[in-house]
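From the pipeline queue, job 12 of 40. The input is one protein chain; the requested action is below.

Action: predict structure.
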Amino acid sequence: MSLPPEKASELKKTIHDHLIKMDVHGKIREVLSETLKDGLGYGPHTFSEGDFLQALQRRGIIDDVMRDLQFSQSIQQDTERSREKDFPNKSAPHVAEKNRLPLNRMDIDVARRYLHLQVLGGKAFLDHLQEPEPLPGQVCSTFRLYLHFRNQRFQSKPVPCACEPDLQEGFLLEVHRDGIGEGSRMADCTTMLSICDPVHLVLIKMDTSNETTLVSSYFLDWRSVLSAPSGRTCFSVELLGVGSESKVPAGVLTISLELYPPLVETLNVDIITTQQSLERQRSAEKERLFLVYAKQWWREFLEIRPSHQSKLVKIFAQDENGVNRPVCSYVRVLRAGRLLESPRQAARFVSLLADEKAPLVGGGAKQEQWCSLLAFVCRGKGDCEDHATLLCSLLLGFGLDAYVCVGTRAKGGPHTWVLTRGTDGSITFWESLTAHRYLHQAIDPDAPPLAPQPKPSSPYRTVGCVFNHQSFLANCQPTDAVPLCVFDLQNPSRWKAMSEEALRSVCAPGSTTSLPPIPPLCASSLEPAAASNQLELEMRFLVAEHRKDLEVATVWDDHLSYLLSSALAAYETERCTGVSCGNEEFQDAVRRAVPDGHTFKGFPIHFLHRNARRAFATCLRSQFCEEIVSCRGDHVRLAVRVRVYAYPENACAVWIMFACKYRSVL
């Protein structure tokens, strides 16, 4: 196989750099010196190249070089195959294919340590015991596995749901220390033993209508591979359900772990077990001490005023695995890099994740379930608590003084939202489900009767407590009604604070082993232009079929369709920024495109999904849209425009606008 000149020179440079890193030239000079000295004692002798190679081979230098170069070569070959297969259109940077290493778009550094995690199949997913074998080309429910390890995220390809799903994947995870650059030394056994970050596995099911369900969330301690004599270990992992089924097995995955390059010396199993036991004991002791403190703090809070017993002061919340964690641990300072440009765009992104309460078997009150961040964004939907904690984390990342509020809405029922405090003392409420913002101005109950009072602008009725990643404050004002509350959080007569040191002991990153690491957000793999074109073609087909059933002809006006784009762009800009702009240009363009004596009608609508049939069925429920789609008359021209806006985590805002123009006949 011949290489292009640029590839050949690149390969030569890589080998040269690797030889310098191994100090091969120094070893060669040393062997040459020793060989010449040995030869001088036996009279004149001519050394050939073969003699010198034999000397190098006896010292094991050639074997060392070839072994390292072979490792690098195999990784490089896998990298090339991964690039060719994974990135034909830059659509799935973290998808792993079968029987090869899933490598991101980076060169493998042979001076770093890697963990090769392979999923070798699933079994005992009994909920799918009666699942029929899917026919070729048939749309069926699928499983997809998501991984997060030390700021690295991966996802598998979807496989059909079955009792024994064909989950065959490989993931290459870099094992590194925090704050270490590319030139660091390779992590040794002791360093890796101290890395207690688990591999977070999240299994998601997607049905035929693209609805997602969280099947399991599992934290894998990978350090058992440090004691494997061959540097490789294989075992089965029992996945448990979530929520009310967190004690019920959901299925079993067979997992293989292997370190690259292999360890020279392995650890004793007892050392690893002892380390894990010490970590668990340390975490349990911290959690016990915090619980003792929380109980004492709660008693003090109740002694202030008996009515505090009925306030919504939430200190702990259960995650998807049924583990009770302090609510402050669900909030982190989260920076989105280049994926989100402003706090309002962050609010828009969070609002595009669907709102869905945790499923409950049988009747009764709402089941409470706060999700870890990875489970929430992989599933793409969650309850108001998940939205509020994510939005608060993002606003903290943008440098705002943000808190999650726990209380009730005006319509009744518990609710959470986000509060930010300005440097001038202004208070702004952020509704995480809609991205709406409300400026809070408290009503003064002691003001004179005729004094002007601000009107409540927010939909919130009561607030019991506020918290973020390092603060927890309970409302100890005489009333918890939001319009009367003063959010002077530093005033102990209005807000009772928990000790920040106590919160830090159980909520700071790495403080306990039960805290899941916070994953980074992933860029969208969606191509907005292609998705918009595809959905628009599907909508045109559905409109034509609908009018065909009504025995009405369909004539499209492409120019009018194009003009609708500016309206859709204005709608999305308004949702992101709260500022309306561009409507004047749209209205002027429509007036020019619609002749005198003609009537124009338009109907915009917004969706969070790209299912054309679902969207069209929803549109037809509107009488105004149905009038446009079914328009009859003289010289009728129809138009439809679709615009898909992509956000992180494959969230999308879909705008569709139907329009028609026709000659008015009196």
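Job complete. The radius of gyration is 31 Å.
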